[in-house]
Records
---
Amino acid sequence: MTTTTRRRVYAAAGAVSLVAGLAVAAPSSAGAATLPTTTPTTATGCATGTVPAQFQGKPTTLKAGLPLGYWVWHDTAGWHLAATHAGKAKVVLTGVIRTSNPMRASGVKLEHGLHGDRWIIGPNHRTLTFRFTNYGGMDALRIGADCSATVSFALYANGHKVSPSRIHLGSAAVAATANPVVMTRIPKV
């Protein structure tokens, strides 16, 4: 079995677990698809505008073992989502990321196997559903959503919506004001 075939088998198995674990319809598309840019870019960035400052840059305080929380930021590589949890007890972190343009994603620091971390992108490539089983480390995703005008993150822990104060945005790790977190690009003038 080739590596690509194995990834597809694992992605399909993960989709079944996600649907059961999240009670949402998780479409069955492979997560790491390469997609063309759908919104034209200009020499100064995206034609759809700029990402607001509060989302820019990796949080300087982010590390494994921090209290339960989500960390969301944007940089030149795209969007990032990291989840942390202190202690060794099992915490199930789930969520749905939606983008206005097609997305692709890759896992960072994810555990694999029967009870591992899973994510799947829907057939329209605009919805990503994830489920991380965390025992005190850090799980993360890198998301390419080429110039999406809007990106939203609905985030949960053990089946309950996470308080916005546990969602940290950008390099300053500013607390979110709502869950889901919705980013809307600032239009160019």
---
Amino acid sequence: MSVVNIEISQDVLDSARLTIGELKREIALSLYAQRRLFIGKAHELADMALWEFRQILATRRIPPHYDEEDLAEDVAVLRELGDLPP
């Protein structure tokens, strides 16, 4: 896995009153809310456990990305695996 580094001045962090960890969390939440990241990558970017990330989403009233198409795909996979009747 390749890593990309970005530079952010301490002055910017101080002005925003954020630590690096908090900034990463805010970026992850924003990208998830914009549907630019799925939850797996978003909680990874935020360096948080999935359940912690979901809690923050809930407190900020950011809805989960799960629609009818996602449900249909999940049902199809479960049927293929034999976990649901045809």
---
Amino acid sequence: MTVTLKSKTRLTVPDGIRRRAGLKSGDTVEFKVSGGVITIVPKRPDADDEDTPEQRRIVDAQLAEGLADIKAGRVRGPFPTYKEFIASLHKEARKLSGKTKRSA
């Protein structure tokens, strides 16, 4: 597809090109220039873009710990009902706080 640039107008990406590229209103694009060729690349949000390297290390360490728990069989569930899930959470919370079950 060919478009003509004018001196006082912005570059417009035709609808058909945007559809084929999967671009939607509000998307961010990055322009790259190399040897007289302009490339427009969609800038997709990436989880790594949101975290600092230190935050990423912490998350990776926590994921590794969780995977180690799963491999060692330290898992709970699945629970047939949400009530059983909630009861399990309360039981674990009591263990962590050192309290015993309150009598009703």
---
Amino acid sequence: MNSWFIIESEGEYLKAMARWQEVKLSKKGSDTFKEKKLLAKLISEYEESVSILPELDPVELIKIRMEDFGYKAADLAEVYGDKGTVSKVLNYKQPLSLSMIRKFSKLLRIPTDALVKEYKLQ
């Protein structure tokens, strides 16, 4: 297990992200699982300190963060509980609900105010 410290540069961030990708499927209770949790916290703190979210509609922002974390629609459905609704939202057929905004904000580390912006449905 590597020794990790507060991430203070883009290089350290990229190294931490690469390691997180290596350990993201580790078994709960293992040392690598503990390392994964620590990396997630350090990465999140660094992203919050340097991140200025682009002016995107909430669905695009969700899709970008899904890609950042390697999540699929099924992962969002697991958190929200309804695969059909998640699919409709990601395809601009249904607006985000307050419940979705809360859950996706936490899961994807997106500020809620970025998810409550108005956007057009198709």
